[in-house]
Amino acid sequence: MSVSPEEQQLRDRFFKVLLEATLPLQPGPDCSNWSIGMPETTMPLQPGPSHEATLEALIDASQMLTEHLRLKLDELRQQEAAPRQTTP
To answer: What is the mean pLDDT of residues 20-25?
Structure first.
C-alpha cells in the first residue's frame, strides 16, 4: 500500500516523537538522545531492570498501544459508517 508524502511525513514525525519518548526509559550509553539530534536527557535513570528487560517491556508496551489504537480506529470507522447506513 502506497502512502502519500503527507502521510509519510506525519508517520515519520510520530515515529520520532515516540522514539524520543522512550529514550529516557532506556539505560545504557547507546540509548542517548544524541543519536537523533536531541539534547541529553535531564532524567537520570534509577537502578532497575537490565537493558534487555527494559527493551522487552518497551516492545510489549508498544504492542499494547498498537492494539489500543487499532480498537479506537475500529470504533471511529464504525461511528463514521453508522450515519451512512441509516441514510436512504
So the answer is: 82
Could you tell me how many helices (H) and strands (E) the chain has, helices first? 2, 0
pLDDT tens for each residue of 34-48:
445 555 555 555 566
Judge contact between 20 and 36, C-beta under 8 A.
Answer: yes
Contact 25, 58 (CB under 8 A): yes
Q: Is 32 helix (H, G, I), strand (E, B) or coil?
A: coil
The continuous run of DSSP H or E covering 7 comes out as helix 5-22
Rounded CA gap, 33 and 30, in Å? Answer: 9
Mean pLDDT of the chain: 80
Nearest to 20 by CA among 36, 2, 8, 4: 36
Confidence at residue 5, expressed as pLDDT on a 0 to 100 scale: 95
